[in-house]
Amino acid sequence: MKPRLVVVGNGMAGMRTVEEVLNLAPDLYDITVFGAEPHGNYNRVLLSPLLAGDKQIDDIMLHTRAWYRENGIALHAGDPVVRIDRKRRVVVARSGLEAPYDRLLLATGSTPFMLPVPGNTLDGVVGFRDLTDVDTMLAAARRGGAAVVIGGGLLGLEAAHALMRRGMAVTVVHVAASLMNQQLDFEAGRLLKESLEREGLRILLDASTTAILGEGKVEAVRFADGLELPADLVVMAAGVRPNTALARDAGLHCERAIVVDDTLQTYDPRIYAVGECVQHRRATFGLVAPSWEQARVCAAHLARNGHRRYVQAALATKLKVTGIDLYSAGNIAGSADSEELVLRDRRGGVYKRLVLQGARLTGAVLVGDVADGPWYFDLIGRGADVSGFRDRLLFGQALCMPAV
Predict the structure, then answer these.
(1) 389-400 confidence digits (pLDDT tens)
(2) N or C: which end of the chain has fewer CB within 10 A?
(3) Domains of the chain
C-alpha cells in the first residue's frame, strides 16, 4: 500500500508543493487535500485584478476539480481540518471525516488582521483574503457610496484602487507616516501618495483607527484625533496573522508561526509546513516567491529525492497602481556604515535610491523608471562586486555592463 500524504490547506503554497511532489515522484503517495474554501485552488495574487474587473474567476483558477481527479488526488473542499491526532496519525475534518497520514503537510496560510476596535464585526467590515471577500466588496461597489481601506501597504493600495475603479469614493488610512513603509523609503512613499491623490484616492497618514460605527452595519470610521469618515464598506488590509491554531492544539512548536527547520520539517518529523503559516529562522513570509522555494525544498524531501535546504533570499516588491511604477528590493533601511546613491527627477517623476555596503549593493528603491529593477535584484542576490561601475550604477545596466 502506498504511503499517505495528507495536505491541510488547498492554497497556493500547499498545492505548489503537491505539484512538485508529482513531478519528482508521481506514484509515491496516495494524496488527500483538505481546503476551507468550496472550490479548487486559485491565485490569490490576482484577487486585486479580479476586484478591479481586469480578470474573471476562470482566469485566476490554478487547479480545477478535474485536475485533482486526473492526478488521483482526493479533494475535500469546504471541509477544513479541525484537529490533528498525532498519536493515531489522523486528521479530523469539520464534517467528522477522518484521514490517516504517513506524512502530513500543513499549508494553513494566514488570515487578515482585523483591528481589535469596537465595531470590527459589523456587516460591511471585510478583510481582503479570499473570493468571499471579493464578492462582498463587489456587492458594496454595486451599491456605490464610500469605502475606507485601513492599511497603506501593497494589498490595501491595490484594493483601494480597484474599488475606486468600481465607482466608490475611497479613502486609504494608514497608521504610519508614509505609504508602503515596509518596502519604500519616505521620498518614494511621498511620490506614491501624490500620484494616487491625483487619480482620486483620498489618503490619511498617521491615522489611528479607534472605532467602527454603525447600527447593524458599518456607517463610519472614527480615528484617534476625533475625525469620523462615513463608510459603507471598510476593508481591513493592515497585515495578516499566520494560522497556527491547528498546529498549536496538536502540540507542535509554534512561536509567531509554525516553526520549521531548513527542510520545512516541524518538530514532528512526519509533519511539514510551507507558506505563510511557517516561521523559519525567526522570519515569517507574506510573498509568493519564498513559498515557491519552500515548496521546492519540501517536495524534494517528501519525494525522498536527496537533501535540499531552504535558504532565505532577498525579496523584491513590484507595484503598479495608477500608472506609477514602483520597485523595491533587498534591505532599503541600510545601516550606520552603509552608503546611498540617490537620483531625483521631479519633473520626470523618477526617483532612485541604491543602498551599498562596501562594494556590494544591498537595497534598491525605484519610482517611475523600474526597468533595471530585476538587474539590481540580481546584483543584490549574488552579492556582486559593483565597485568597477559604482559611478554609473544609478543609470542602469546598459551603462554598467560594458565595464563588467
Answers:
(1) 999 999 998 888
(2) N
(3) 4-111+242-302 (3.50.50.60), 125-236 (3.50.50.60), 316-403 (3.30.390.30)
